[in-house]
Design brief:
heterodimer; A: about 375 residues; mainly alpha; MetI-like fold; globular; B: 6-stranded mixed sheet; about 35% helix; about 25% strand; binds adenosine-5'-triphosphate; binds magnesium ion; transmembrane helix (chain A); cell membrane (chain A); AA_ABC_transptr_permease_3TM (chain A); transmembrane (chain A); ArtM/GltK/GlnP/TcyL/YhdX-like (chain A)
């Protein structure tokens, strides 16, 4: 026995050591990321030079020699940006031609949207609350918003959609586009993978038809051609037609994104769900679709962002979204040369919303990450 | 010509001493003259197999012999083209209702576990009881916890499958199948995707399940398991049942030369 004991060795794991000093701390970080090789060092120096050349003039234009206060073009005396213009025309950029006394309705719609969506960014809000707010945003909210904005009910004066404009119109177009395209796109994706030939054919035709034409021609058709086919006297709203066109177009895109996700679900998942007795709809809604949607969150949000930005195309059928509003305001002879300020403002508005969507999707991906995949 | 020994006696079940249990007279699975093709490829050829209630069957055979396809025909993950498959008195046809009824009674465990990665272990287990059997959540969760205890991983209930080892995942998959209170369990190579250290923990659970009297059909190459647990070993090759016999008989005195070749090959390792 003693002889065996002397032969066998006791295994003790080595203690964990700190990483070598060259890889930690600020100096270590800089060495690894900025100066790790000669090309890398050259790139770092070049970037620093570009920042030095480009950033100070921009700051000077936008802030240091810009004019912020005043109420007309006369206030813009500096060399820099004339932000007075944005301040003075802000209401037009936000509400379009929506009549002044009724703008509280638009504000209410904005505030409700913010109340429903902003908590989604904060993990400390209880998950249940966030879920209910999400459900509200997708179901009751669109109805409420439509009634408030349109009016004609409950004593609210009716406001024609031709008066809608600016940021409000941009948000209406993109919100409806998003809320319709995801579910419709999902149904189309499921239909395209269906075992039933008729359903599959219909879905393939729908998707390929809408995807094959540019959005501009969809909008043209909706505004110019559709009325030709409708009987006289039937004249439904231009905005509504644009909304339908945008929703259908993006549903077709969304369908292919979601289908990509469904394609990525291993066959074993379908089989396990079937073996447990889950039928098609239960297996889809409980097992495969949640995984597929999670897989393609980046693609879905990418589509949302593209949709949001492409709402500017409604300009060509005579609807004034925020870009349209800015464009019509900068040609006002009462103001000097304010095109750059106008476009920078419009770009910033778009950027804020698109960046918000991107951040939200990244947070969602982190939250839904449930351990490493094999 | 097909080789079918089944029509005679469902095996010399004489060595019931190993794990005491009773085999009922009623058939749980009755497969008669079943054929299946993939396109023009004849995968299953005149399969005849009867599994009685309480019986434990081990199916073995070389790769590609149609073992998986055969047991997948029992819960209609694959469709057979001719012949009949009757499970617990219900014949499998196109009828969706009958397929659903059978799937509620038959649990299945897969080689690659196939747990749902977006749900926790507990949610995996209660999904089907709640949505298919319409059990109240509380009751389903209590049952799931007691089954997770039976497979010795109650402490993992709140984790996601991706955070567990292969052996733990496979035990969850077994618990998930058992949550439906199945009358029959199908295993398709449950240990062949596992590291050697984890095979035993899964086999232990399966032995324990056998002791409880569950009717089981296992595709496996774990011959030790076959020897201690199986009532009958079914050997398949080229889509046919070549031979079926009690394990003592099967291992010591195989009738077919194909079986002998197969045994000599796997016992070499
Ligand atoms: N979906 C399919 N389409 C066409 N051929 C298939 C399909 N699935 C399996 N096969 C073929 O059918 C035969 C039987 O396959 P099966 O998976 O049942 O074999 P197995 O005995 O389980 O093998 P293994 O031990 O490798 O799992 C194989 O030759 C396989 O290539
Ligand atoms: Mg197999």
């Amino acid at each position: 026995m003693s002889s065996r004991d002397s032969e066998s060795q006791v295994f003790t794991p080595r203690p964990a050591l700190p990483p070598p000093p060259r890889t930690v701390g600020l100096a270590g970080w800089a060495r690894q990321n900025l100066f790790s090789s000669i090309p890398n060092t050259l790139l770092t120096l070049l970037s620093a030079y570009l920042v030095w050349v480009l950033v100070p003039p921009v700051i000077d234009w936008a802030i240091l020699s810009a004019n912020f206060f005043g109420d007309s073009n006369d206030a813009c005396t500096g060399e820099g940006a004339c932000w007075v213009f944005i301040g003075q025309r802000l209401n037009f950029f936000i509400y379009g031609f929506y009549p002044d006394p009724e703008r509280w309705r638009v504000n209410t719609v904005f505030i409700l949207l913010a109340l429903a969506l902003v908590p989604q960014f904060f993990p400390m809000v209880p998950a249940k609350v966030r879920t209910w707010l999400g459900v509200f945003a997708l179901t009751l909210y669109p109805v409420l918003a439509a009634v408030l904005l349109m009016g004609g009910l409950f004593g609210l004066p009716f406001i024609e959609t031709s008066k809608w404009g600016g940021l409000m119109l941009t948000l209406v177009l993109s919100y409806v586009g998003i809320v319709v395209s995801l579910p419709v796109g999902t149904l189309l994706a499921l239909g395209r993978r269906s075992g039933m030939p008729i359903i599959r054919t219909i879905c393939v035709l729908f998707i390929e038809l809408w995807r094959g034409v540019p959005l501009i021609s969809v909008l043209f058709m909706a505004s110019v051609m559709l009325p030709l086919f409708l009987p006289d006297g039937v004249n439904f709203d231009k905005l509504l037609r644009a909304l339908i066109g945008i929703s259908m177009f993006w549903s077709a895109y969304m369908a292919e994104v979601v289908r990509g996700g469904l394609q990525g679900i291993p066959k074993g998942q379908y089989e396990a769900a079937a073996a447990l007795g889950l039928g098609y709809w239960k297996a889809t809604l409980l097992v495969t679709l949640p995984q597929a949607l999670k897989l393609v969150i980046p693609g879905i949000v990418n589509t949302f962002i593209a949709l949001f930005k492409d709402t500017t195309l409604v300009l060509i059928i005579g609807l004034f979204d925020i870009l349209g509003a800015v464009q019509s305001a900068i040609v006002d002879p009462a103001w000097g040369h304010v095109a750059i300020e106008g476009y920078v403002f419009a770009a910033l508005c778009f950027w804020v919303f698109c960046f918000g969507m991107s951040q939200y999707s990244q947070g969602l991906e982190r939250k839904l990450h449930t351990g490493h995949k094999r | 010509m097909s080789i079918s020994i089944d029509k005679q006696d469902p095996s010399g079940r004489t060595d019931g001493q190993r794990i005491g249990h009773e085999v009922g007279a009623e058939a749980m699975i009755q497969i008669t003259d079943m054929n299946k093709w993939y396109g023009s490829f004849h995968v299953l050829r005149d399969i005849n197999l009867t599994v009685h209630k309480g019986e434990r069957i081990v199916v073995c055979g070389p790769s590609g012999s149609g073992k998986s396809t055969m047991i997948r025909c029992v819960n209609r993950l694959e469709e057979h083209q001719t012949g009949t498959v009757v499970v617990d008195g219900i014949e499998l046809t196109e009828d969706i209702k009958k397929i659903d009824a059978i799937r509620r009674e038959v649990g299945m465990v897969f080689q690659h576990f196939n747990l749902f990665p977006h749900l926790t272990v507990l949610e995996n287990c209660v999904l089907s009881p709640i949505w298919v059997r319409k059990e109240p959540r509380r009751q389903a969760e209590e049952r799931a916890m007691s089954l997770l205890e039976r497979v010795k991983i109650p402490e993992q209930a709140k984790k996601y499958p991706g955070q567990l080892s292969g052996g733990q995942q496979q035990r969850v998959a077994i618990a998930r199948a058992l949550c439906m209170n199945p009358k029959l369990m199908l295993f398709d190579e449950p240990t062949s995707a596992l590291d050697p250290e984890m095979i035993k923990e899964v086999l232990d659970v399966m032995v324990q399940l056998a002791e409880s009297g569950m009717t089981m059909v296992c595709v496996t190459h774990e011959m030790g398991f076959a020897k201690t647990v199986a009532d009958r070993v079914v050997f398949m090759d080229s889509g046919q049942v070549v031979e079926q016999a009690a394990p003592s008989e099967f291992f010591s005195n195989p009738k077919s030369d194909r079986t002998r070749l197969f045994l000599s090959q796997i016992l070499k390792h």
